[in-house]
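Re-run with default settings, no changes from the original entry. Doing this only to confirm the output is reproducible before filing.
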Amino acid sequence: MANQTRVDINHYKTLGIAEGASQAQVKQAYRQLAKQFHPDSQNQGATNEKIAAVNAAYEVLGDAKVRRQYDVERQLLAKTKRRERTSRTVDSQNQYRQRKKSSTADSTTIEQWLRRVFNPTDRLIGKVIKPLKAEVRSLSADPFDDELMEAFQTYIETCREHLQKAQTTFKSMPNPAGVAGGAANMYYCLNQLEDGIEEIERFTYTYDENYLHTGQELFRISAGLRKDAKAEIKAVL
């Protein structure tokens, strides 16, 4: 049972149900998946690993007492992650203070940094933020439609790819001291986007709209930080 109650394993995702599902819904989902992935079924996707994961999930979620304990531990884990997120923001502020002190005007010019770092990073961020509203609107037609959800998940994966490129580009060259404020806002923007993508992805396998709303709010904050970064850079030029 110790391995089955590990909170880093999302049993709700395994059964394809929301975290607020009733015990009856848990049982129904388990029966459908057990039939689908049973080794004797004709389903080509049936494997011992899949049926073992389904059984492990049901052992936890099918027992109301064990499920309550599992939910409590997951909530504690979520709180820990939020504290780590806050700590990361504080650390990033300290890092930028250090970078501002160590950066010198002759190590790199503002023009070079804008061309090689800021502008391409900004374009990649735009590719993540701008499609969100349309993608959510499209999915809202029927979140339980497999094709619509698959298209939305493809968008999330594309966002991750753009974000990774943006983060790599942003780290490729130290910013000049004169644009430290704008660089800091862009750095925070990237952090918020990373957290926002994570929250939205959780919605795709829990169908809990709280995750979607949190992700949208983090994207909104990112857009504001991006706007502030541009304004600070413009003021320097």
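The chain is about 75% helix and 0% strand. Residues 103-236 form a domain with the Four Helix Bundle (Hemerythrin (Met), subunit A) fold (CATH 1.20.120).
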